[in-house]
Design goal:
Layout (H helix, E strand, L loop, with lengths): L1 E2 H4 L4 H17 L2 H6 L5 E3 L2 E4 L11 E4 L4 E4 L5 E2 L1 H9 L3 H11 L4 E2 L2 H30 L1 H9 L4 H6 L3 E3 L5 H8 L4 H6 L3 E4 L2 E4 L4 E7 L5 E7 L8 E3 L15 H11 L2 E3 L3 H9 L5 E2 L8 H7 L5 E7 L2 H16 L3 E7 L5 H8 L1 H9 L2 E2 H8 L4 H12 L5 H15 L3 H15 L16 H12 L4 H7 L8 H11 L7 H7 L2 H12 L8 H27 L4 H15 L5
Parallel strand pairs: 1-7, 14-15, 14-16, 16-17
Antiparallel strand pairs: 2-3, 3-4, 4-5, 5-6, 8-11, 9-10, 11-12, 12-13, 17-18
Length: 577
């Protein structure tokens, strides 16, 4: 029986157990069959090809290698094994994805110690949250005032059901007493933050509020939002953070909106729970909302699994404009393409849709302002100051093609010369220390071809790693990512495992490993010749560099120059360096 704590160990033994479990899973579940549940795959040479589920594309660039049990997308550089795929597709942790696939493969993972405690704690919080949802729904059904309030706000019976909306009565400890009677321990109720304990005793966290359950992408209820029905403050109250809930990482309604976001390839972002619910009710089922705060990079990181395009819907007052501008800044840093819809004065999506209906709202969504148009329209000061402000935001965009698109639009709308805008953009980047393309990797990392092919040979034939490393000075490798991977390969000794290498690699390294696994770039039957040719070429380049430095720094060192001459003779004879 394989234990989760062994899987997560960083020791050599732990690494071997991790590999053993993954290999056992792969012996029972084929990656092509597994991914076919999510992506339509067709045979393409030795691989399988389909449309990438992680970004929008019309031409398939998502490849799956059945022999190596690895996938790679040449469009967005996502790659890995079936565990990596499930982590990215379902927004799961490594442990959660591994447990799911192991269960699917019929493998039981015995959990114990700290890992078991943490996992059990999470599961119990999710269980007690589900029981709380049922309790709140029963309360709402029996409470005429709250039900009348929601109907007055225009919520349909279907919306109440879809969003599992409930009510926390104006009682001190009604939920606490109910959950206790249901068999849940006091400590669990405190950990789930459903109950508060202080000098006055234990009492319910939510009282006299409409309750909106907050779910993750897997549809687990991880927290709650509560809204008052009068003008008392705070108007909205969210659950405190727990082991299953982090406010800065969570988006309301993403569990219900996920498929529609993928289908339409954009998300509508509104400010409040009721705004999101009414949008869904009127057919805009790709609508989500942050939890009463500004957008965060962690929220956008999770949204990017589904799309990299958004429409922000805000009030047209000063507060709404300021909120939209703050959101655009973080959207730029996260490489999202954004539009902004400013509603008429004193309107929000909730009131606008109930007054005007969905057709006009759809028209306004279609005609929403581009980011450049919105920023120029709402910026203060002279035109040049407005343009500089826009450029300072464009400078945070890491996607080079998107930057070019935005510069072109800015030139058209500002009627300024594009080359002048480009020069000013570069000045801003230098001033802020930002480098274009930072954090991005192209499909093929710019590097000498020999380094790339040599790494590809080792990934395809791990048993040849020892021979390669015996003839290779890793520090001579010019590409940082390839050099780092060879350093990691060295730590495996004579037991090189691509599975373990993937586990220990960063995002750029993982992308390169999976890319070369799917498309090695050489004929496998000529692997030995490929390795020898690459090593010879790299050794000669190293020699040329040492010779150049010697001629520049030690022009009179006869012994050094004789040594270099002898080395050149060996190259001429075709000997190994």
């Amino acid at each position: 029986m394989l234990r989760l704590q062994e899987i997560q160990s960083t020791s050599k033994t732990g690494r071997m157990n991790s590999e053993k479990l993954l290999e056992e899973i792969k012996s029972r579940i084929d990656i092509v069959d597994f991914i076919s549940d999510y992506v339509s795959l067709k045979k393409s040479g030795q691989n399988y090809k389909g449309l990438c589920p992680f970004h929008s594309e019309k031409t398939p660039s998502f490849m799956v290698s059945q022999p190596k049990q690895i996938f790679h997308c040449f469009g967005c550089n996502a790659g890995g094994d079936m565990v990596s795929f499930l982590m990215k597709h379902e927004n799961l942790s490594f442990g959660e994805a591994l447990r799911y696939i192991a269960k699917k493969a019929g493998i039981r993972i015995e959990e114990f110690g700290p890992d078991k405690d943490f996992s059990v704690k999470r599961e119990k919080i999710l269980q007690v949250n589900e029981e709380a949802v049922k309790f709140f729904i029963r309360n709402l059904t029996a409470a005429k005032g709250p039900m009348d309030y929601l109907k007055k706000r225009g919520l349909s019976e279907e919306s109440l059901k879809n969003f599992s909306i409930g009510y926390a009565a104006d009682q001190w400890d009604a939920l606490f007493v109910h959950l206790r009677k249901s068999g849940y321990a006091d400590s669990l109720l405190l950990n789930a933050r459903l109950v508060i304990a202080d000098g006055k005793g234990s009492r319910d966290f939510f009282r006299k509020r409409i309750i909106f359950p907050i779910s993750n992408l897997k549809n687990d209820v991880i927290a709650f939002g509560g809204r008052v029905m009068d003008n008392s403050l705070p108007k909205y109250l969210n659950s405190p953070e727990t082991d299953v809930f982090k406010k800065s990482e969570t988006l309301f309604a993403i569990n219900l909106a996920r498929e529609e976001i993928r289908k339409k390839d954009h998300a509508i972002i509104v400010e409040g729970y009721l705004d999101a619910i009414i949008c869904h009710q009127y057919g805009f089922k790709n609508t989500i909302a942050p939890l009463g705060t500004a957008l965060t990079s962690r929220q956008l990181q999770k949204l990017k699994i589904l799309t990299d395009k958004v429409v922000l819907v805000f009030d047209s007052d000063a507060a709404g404009i300021a909120a939209a501008r703050r959101s655009l800044a973080i959207l730029c840093e996260s490489d999202f393409k954004a539009k902004v819809l400013l509603l008429p004065q004193s309107e929000d999506p909730d009131s606008f849709l109930r007054t005007n209906g969905g057709l006009l709202f759809q028209k306004m969504i279609t005609e929403a302002l581009s980011m450049i148009e919105f920023l120029l329209k709402t910026a203060k000061g002279e035109r040049t100051d407005q343009v500089r402000e826009v450029l300072s935001m464009v400078a945070n965009v890491r996607d080079i093609l998107r930057t070019e698109e935005m510069l072109g639009e800015l030139a058209d709308r500002s009627r300024l010369n594009e080359s002048a805008l480009r020069s000013e953009l570069e000045r801003i980047k230098k001033k802020t220390g930002f480098q274009a393309g930072e954090g991005k990797k192209s499909s093929i990392i710019p590097s000498p071809r020999q380094e790339l092919l040599l790494l590809s040979a080792v990934i395809s034939f791990p048993e040849k790693a020892e021979t390669v490393l015996s003839r290779l000075n890793v520090e001579d490798i010019s590409d940082e990512t390839i050099r780092s991977l060879f350093h990691k390969i060295k730590t495996f000794g004579d037991e090189v495992s691509i599975v373990a290498l993937l586990e220990n690699a960063d995002a750029a390294e993982q992308s390169l490993i999976t890319q070369l696994s799917v498309d090695p770039g050489f004929d496998p039957e000529l692997a030995d010749q490929n390795i020898d040719d690459c090593l010879q070429t790299m050794a000669y380049k190293s020699y040329e560099e040492r010779k150049r430095r010697a001629e520049a720094k030690e022009p009179d060192d006869i012994a050094l120059h004789n040594s270099l001459l002898e080395e050149k003779r060996r190259f001429s004879k075709g000997a190994n360096p």
